[in-house]
Design brief:
367 residues; seven-stranded mixed sheet; 12 helices; alpha/beta; three-stranded antiparallel sheet; binds pyridoxal-5'-phosphate
Amino acid sequence: MEKIYVTRSSIPSIEEYIEEIKPVFESHWLTNAGPKHEELRESLKKYLKTPNLALTVNGHLAIEVALQMLGLDHGEVITTPFTFVSTSNAIVRMGMKPVFCDIREDDYTMDASKIEALITPETVAILPVHVYGNICDTEAIEAIAKKHGLKVIYDASHTFGEELNGVEVGNFGDASTLSFHATKVYHTIEGGAVVCHSQEEEDRVRIIRDFGIVDEEHTNEIGPNAKMNEFAAAMGICNLRHVDAWIEERRDAYEYYIEQLTDVKGIRLNKIAEGLKSNYAYFPIIVDEEEYGESRDELFKRLAAADIMARKYFYPLVTELESYSSDYDAKETPIALKISCQVMTIPLYAGLSHEDIDRIVKVIKRQ
Ligand SMILES: *Cc1c(COP(=O)(O)O)cnc(C)c1O
């Protein structure tokens, strides 16, 4: 049987993409904030209803550049171990120490009630993640940050285009970062963005992502090369035309899954919060071994045997990875540890058919 992968990148037609890159070939202007880059930035500002946004080469460097833009270069940053390793790698690579806060059992985002106990005189910022598109408790997190004089940067890689009670998610905190990686809801093949709150901040992001170069004779700080090229921007322009339709297709698949899986004993589904305009990025399920009669790993194997490639996302926890485990103890975030052993994301992408979902559901229901 044909393999069903956990995701499949959405793409425009080849004709549409070729049409978009023709001017790039004609002008020989391939990168360094060319016309396609500028067009995409303006279109994304409109789409995301945000006045200030700067594009980057990927979502990881968006986090590093955002930290630098906010002047964060030493001390401790409170973050979550239940994320893609990029989040904490950015903190370490920018010269800071991640301090891991546990998550909430119901939506997998940072548990704000556990933040204050982790604050020390060294703490400079909080870097939560809107996991699977579930928005963090931004009010509680930002109240704590305000009280202690900390910055808040959200890793919003999972939440492209989402709105909570009419507010676009990029508007929370001091800055948010997006990933436009090929596996995300919206992509530029590789790409990302920093959403910030003033023209000065946007300008600083543009300087930092270009080695820190201010103009031909002035370079005031040390930055990486994190610029988005014209071919990536052209892909982004094409994809922005289709992303609403793709999110609709995801919603259709999502709702069909919900119909089929709601009453399966021992399988807990992700709840979309009230007031959230979701982008249907992922379909995480929690497998309760006792109730379901099988562990996450056993179900994962049975799915694989049926050519269905789920993903243990996020497992292992960041603190269990070799690059972190000698400095951290995963048991200090018990909820995150438990969830990471029970969770998997099952296939969800634009165009996933009901027939394919039936195949997946049958394995889960042992039919
Ligand atoms: C995808 C992702 C990143 C990194 O983005 P890239 O574009 O792959 O560099 C960071 N954090 C989270 C939570 C992600 O899902």
